[in-house]
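In this section we walk through a basic example: taking a raw amino acid sequence and producing a predicted 3D structure, encoded as discrete structure tokens. The instruction is simple. Fold the sequence below.
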Amino acid sequence: MSFESEVITEGKFSYLEKGEGHPIILLHGLFGALSNFNDVIDYFSKKYKVIVPLMPVYTLPIIKTSVKNLAKFIEEFVEFKNLNQFTLLGNSLGGHVALVYTLKNMDKVHSMVLTGSSGLYENAFGGSFPRREDKEYLRKKIALTFYDPNLATDELVDECYNVVNDRGKLVRILALAKSAIRHNLRNDLEKFTTPTCLIWGKNDTITPPEVAEEFHEKLKNSDLYWIDNCGHAPMMEHPEEFNRILDQWFHKKFGFELVNPN
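The resulting token sequence is shown next.
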């Protein structure tokens, strides 16, 4: 299942839009792609309008490559699509962008879903890639994302290899990683009133469980759910469990109808 062929490009924006109903905007992480959310898109687009903007992670001017400017890009996209009262769902860097956007636009955001989000603390992929030409080294690095290292597939390794061996992309990755560390939201979390669903892998080594617990403690209107035997990308590693948790949270919190995936 792949949605790449359904991506729409209008002006500066490329995005996927599927389904009708309450809008859910999915924000990918630093090495993220549409494929990271295949199961989420397939499941939730049966009942909701699922929108995935492709963030300009590799195309912003280097001096403007930051979490703040990615959030500004989402602001422009929301305005372009004339969206209001939507759910923002972000993984890793995408969660961080969701938080920065929401802090400035709390009146527009109906709810947030954060999974493996940066914004407090993360073990970065690496401050440098001294062996970026070595695919097996990259495979071991990518495997740290998952509880099951077999999910570091040849396809993922090849994607990552092509990115980190492109100097322009590599410089932007490092700029974004540094920006994420600098743009710490610890002192802002108590300002949030947005209903938030935290879905976390119990075995996440990049944004470890204590990060989820701090988010839960400081975000007043939040619920925290754990997935066992799961790393930094629950929606990839345990998509059925991820979808079930989010589906039930929507239903419990807002009375949304449960999604029927069949």
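Looking at the output, two observations stand out. The longest strand covers residues 109-115. The longest helix spans residues 167-182. In the next section we compare this with other chains.
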